[in-house]
Input
Amino acid sequence: MKKLCWMLTLLFVFVQVIVPFVYASEGDEGIDERHGKPIVVLGESLSEEQKDKVRSLLDAADPDQVQEYTVTAEDLVQFIGGDPSSNMYSSAKITRKQEGYGLVVNIVNPDNITQVTNEMYANALLTAGVENALIDVASPLKVSGHSALTGIYKAFNVEGESLDQERMEVANEELDVATELAEKAGIDQEEVSELLSEIKKEISEQNPATKEDVERIVNEKLDQLNIELTPEEREMLTSLFDKIRNLNIDFGQVKDQLESIVGDLRGTLEEVTGGDPEGFWQSVRNFFDDIIQSIRAIFN
Output
């Protein structure tokens, strides 16, 4: 019995001390006066009750702590030439960060964003020209997740800022291609994100001059990652990246931003685990195994 009490005490300490430390980056840090209040963009198709739920999910319930906008079907038409009859549900909070922070995307309730992953959002947003920001995405009901991208565009096109129209349109096409490959070609979402990132990195290094050069890069990456696509799907990818090639993006900067996303995650993990993530989580597993064994011993 004494051993059980000791183990439960340690469990309490773990929950109260270790877990909050892991998630400290998501705590309330107040308003960053250098970059202004976070911007929350809510889908216009949400009911008032659903909007309140999204505000709660995005930690944006205090109107004094955020700037709030509504993303509409008219915005979809304005920014990417989309369908004016579209329903807008998925929403986002955009927190501007200092130069060098990179781009971090966090889907707060991923079970309700069915087609788009963090990496898909990040890849498309880098193409659109978004950088140095923490972006949280949420929806109170199951949706594909596409309208959140337009909401993010709107957040970066208020108060005198603006993103390039052509880059936004191509970025939206990129998201469509990513979700279509995952849905119709049967490729895992993670593999799709890896493929798009690898092609971008290769374009940044090779600086292809023609569509044929882009096609060669696409085919090489498909072969390296052992991904089988139809000729039509390969052409879809080639056409997309040829458009990206013609956007005159600083591809070196895009590469840096992609790598910074991975670097931020690794840095956080190393901070928590002391540079030994496998050993840390193994000790956590052992800890809970001991608790379970102690409880079993009592009842046996």
